[in-house]
Each structure stands twice: as structure tokens, then as C-alpha cells.
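pls read this stuff:
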Amino acid sequence: MRKYLITLIPVLMLSLQPDSRSSSAPVPPVTAKAPAADDLKPTMTQEHVEQVVTQLLTRHHYRKVRLSDSLSAVVWDNYLKEMDASKVYLLASDVASFEKYKLQIDDALVNGDLTAAFDMFNVFRKRLAERSEFVKQTLSKPFSFSADESYNTDREKSAWPKNLEEQNDLWRKMLKNQALELKLTGKADTAVMSLMSTRYKSLERRQNRIKSEDVFQMYMNAFGEALDPHTNYFAPRTADLFNQEMSQSLEGIGALLQEDGEYTKISDLVPGGPAFRSKQFTKGDRIIGVAQGDNGPMVSIVGFQVDDAVKLIKGPKGTVVRLQIRPATALAADVPKEIRIVREKIKLEEQRAHKEVIDINEDGRTYKLGVVTVPLFYRDFDAARRRESDVASTTTDVKRLIDSLKLQKVDGVVLDLRGNGGGSLIEAINLTGLFIQKGPVVQVRDSGGDTEVMADNDPSVTYDGPLAILVDRFSASASEIFAAAIQDYKRGIIVGGQTFGKGTVQTLVDLNNMLPKEQDKVGQVKMTVQKFYRINGSSTQHKGVTPDILLPSRFSAEEYGESAQASALPWDQIASTRFDVTSFINEKLTTRLREKYEQRLKTDVDLKREAQAVVDFKKAKENTTVSLLESKRKKEKDDADKKLAALDKSGATDSETPETPSTAKAKKKKDTYLIETGRILSDMIGMQGKVKTAMNN
């Protein structure tokens, strides 16, 4: 999956001989049928790149994978998913004809043989053209939504159509479902058909512009993602765009986008960016349409490559773009929503940590709590290299904020890391140092098994009071390192959802330096080379950090995070390093805090509503079949809208009841989980205070 706006990581220069061959005897390629005149064909340069990438990944990737028939089968499966994730273009007979390549891709990778890649794609390309003709015929007249039939929107576990008749019926229902979605937004039949026609004409133009470079990138990514989800090949055009994004100022909506089958998905939001500040986007949202200005036509980007989607979404500062979104939390029957957003340069100051003070009433006492929100782990490396005295960094800012909160005499501090996708490892270590005297923070292991312990060596402590860390499913990487260290030192209570589980380190390799004789550019490879471990020896990979107190979450580990990726590196454990555990948190205290939370979960209106919403959502998510009968579908939509409105209304009322004690500021935010974290921290302060009183008496 290609990604943009990701942090540029140091380039690892590796020496490989591009002309070297495997010591084993070359295996002759499978004979393919004679290519048609308009078939896409590989270049000699791509064949050379295939060999170099194969050597690079098999020798230097953390996983130390060996080429084999089993790996070949995984690459074959990945490639089919890259081409036809929804299983709507290819026929079962096509897939059967590809079986001859299934166990030979490993040999082809070594020998620079791209026969399988291009043979399979050229068949797929012909099916694309056939579907385009079918769509034109089907959209020549409006749909009737009077028949009581249904369509299953989840095609992941479905089989490829057995024949053309079955495929045509599948496409008829798929197009009918898309048209009904548009009609339920209030559009007339003529407008629906016009929009549908425009959408598929645009898709056809995109398909006709697919080049050999695109096919090669797709194939090499199928190989890279067989090793782990973060290993990718960037073709020259993609690599150039990636480098441009890294060197230019960020103007646009401030989102990291990636391909997800035929869709463009938001995989992260840039703190301080328009999308982040609008609070209308969530990681995992799919962008299915883009319109320029307030009146421009909505252009479908389903089937677009991510770089082409980026070109439409980005634009000059101050201009308007409208996005048609299918939210990550959308149910099968939900219609897409449209969001208007003004492009602008990312405001870096809004990426920085900030604070607020909330009051929590618990057990007859009002607790004054400081909340420090950390959107990401940032550091001005240029200023640090220049040895400037005041380097902008997460640690510097959080220290300043906590010093300010101490002057305000807060009873405790909550660090909010929800949605923090990581950033600087140094900052994760230094931030931990604000709360412990000194000691190890994280262990980093390379592919050779060598382990480095990275530590905070500063004995000073900025804050030694009651501490809670709030995390969610999208707290990742550096966030997980920090939260894990706080948990291992028993320095604070961890509250929220299980974190993302990304415990790996990637590096970027410029293939142009490895193939200097090639006249054409050859691209780049991003690959995994190291793995993070907690100081107790447990990996943060796959499992992430499990909070001491788990709050309900709509984002399950099966669908979101590292564990949702089939090729994710596994969780494992190495030896613990030596560290001095504090006495702030113990199992008895954690158990009592959990019990009090569970009592509130049964009685507090806000918490009960959130927990029930999670249950209802997960139950509704299981139903992926939608009605194509307009009256029935409209009723499903109206019922869902009424339920949502009722929840919103009850939420506004509940915030004024004694069961949700908080300050006006906390009420205004309606942040149930922040308020609950504040209660948990207040409980902890109260319990620890009683222990101290008993000891003094």
C-alpha cells in the first residue's frame, strides 16, 4: 500500500551486486500464451530491479524470510488482492488459469522473470474493458428500486463469479446499490444516472492510463507485503512524489492517504491540519469522491491510484475542496457523507502539546486535574544539530506545560495520547524521563539479533505526582513506547483502548544507488529492519499496550491496527533489562480502580450510552447485506438516523445531570472518556491519600 505524508526515515545504503544471480540453477519460466499487441510488457530495467529488490529483502529484512513455494503462494494471493480485492472483475476460470504461477513466483523473483505478473494483469485488464462496456449499457436507463432483492457489500469472503451471467448479475446489483445510495441523498433519477456515468467514465480513463510501471509496482508490493505490512516498493514516479511531499510545505487537508483495494483511505491525520481540526474525519475513512470549490462536480476516485487522488485533493491555500466520505464506522446501509473543507498550510503550532484544566467531582470532593494533549512526538532536529538552547520538542513543551500546571496546584495530570501516531523515538525516551528518575525506556533489536537498550540518563524528575495516560487504538509507535515504559515502571495508570501495535522500524533504500548503470530511474524500497521491545522484554509489535483499565471501543483489533494485517510481524519476547519499579501503582490499587470504573459503567448515563453504542455498532457491522428495495432501504436509514439523533439528544441532557459531574469546560467537550479518565485518576488520588493518612496515623 502506498502512503504519503509519512515521515522520511534515514536512508540505509546497502551494497549488493545487481548482476549477481542465485547460486542455484535458474528455473525456466512458465510458458505463457502469446501476448496481444496492446498488452503491457515489462522492461529490462524492471527485470533487473526485481532481482535487486529480491536480494535486498531476503538478505536485510528483519524477517529473514527464505524464498519458497509457501511464500510464492502468499505473493500470488497478495497480487490477486491488489488487482481485484472485491472479486468483481476476474472470473473463477481466470483465477484457475493463474494457478500455474502460484508456486513459481519465488523462482521468478530470483531470475528477474515478470511473466506471471504481466500475464495475470493483462487478463485483468481485458476484464476491466469488458466491465466498462457492461456499465455503459446498464447505465443507459434509470434503475427501478421496486424489486425486493438485496446486495452483500462485503466481498472479501465471496468467491469469484463462476461465469459471465453470474458476474453481470453481481454488477447489476452493485451498480443498483450505488445508485440507491445517491438517490437516498435526495438526488433525482437523472442526476443519479449522470453522476454514475461520469464516475465510471473517469474510472475507465484511469484504467486506460495504467502503465507498465504501475503493474510492476503492484507486483513488487505484493512481494513486500508478504514480509510485513510496512515493506513497500516505490516506482520512480511514486518515489518522486514521495520526496516532493517531504520537501514542500504541507498545503491541503492534512491527511495521510493510502490505497485500500479500489479505495483511497485516510490512514492518519496531521495534527494542526484542516482535517484534524474539523473533527469530521477518522482514521480509516474512505474518500470516494472529490469536488473542487463549492459548486464543482463530484468526481469519483474509486479505482484511482493514491497519487492521482492526492493531486485532486491537494490545492492552493484558501481554496475549497469537498470530499465524499464513507466513514470507517459506516454501516452497510449508510449513505456517504459530504464534507466541505478549506485547504491551508498546516499550522505547526497546533501540532504541539497543549493543556487545559478540568474539575472532577468524585466521592464528595472536587479534584483539579491538568490535561496535557500530545498530538505527536515532534522534535526540531535542525535546531538540535545547531545546538540551539531552546529546541522545539514534545519534551520541552510538556515540561513547560507541567511546570505551569504545578503552579496552578493541580491534584493530578492526564496525558492524552489518543490518535498520536508516533514520531521521534528520542522524544518518547526524553518524555518518559520527565516522570522517572532515570533508567532504560525501550529495547531495539536488529535483524541480526543484536539488542540496544535506550535509556533516559537524566536523574531529574519534572513531575512526581498522580499520573494517568489516556490511549486508544490509534496511539502507535512512539506513543506505545512511552505508555509501555510508564506501565512497566508502574509510574502511572494506563486508561483507554488497546493501542495500535506497531513495534517495527523502517528504513528507506534508494535503488538508484544500487543500479548505477541503469539509465532510467528505478525507485525506492521501504523495508522493516528493527523491532521495538519493552524494558520487561515484551514486544510492542502486534499486541501494542493493553491499558490497565479498558474503555469500550468501536475499533476492534480484528479490523484496525497491526493485528488486522495478515503479514504483521508476530509478538515475541526477549530478556528483560534491569530497571527499578516505582511504588505509584500496584495490582491491589489497579483492581480497586477497575472495580469503581465497572460500577460507574452500570450506573453512569454517559458511560452506559457509550458502551451500548459500541455493542450496537458491532452488532450492526456484522450485517453487510443491504436491501435494494427503496422503501425498505429508506426505512433502515430513517431508523438509524432516529437512533443517532436520540443518542445525541440524551447526551446533551445527561451532561446536565448529577451523574456526570464535571466542569463546564469538560461538558462543552462532551468527551466522555476524558472525563472518565479524570474520575479514575481522582479515585487513585483519593485511595492513595487514604493510605498515606492511615500510615501517618
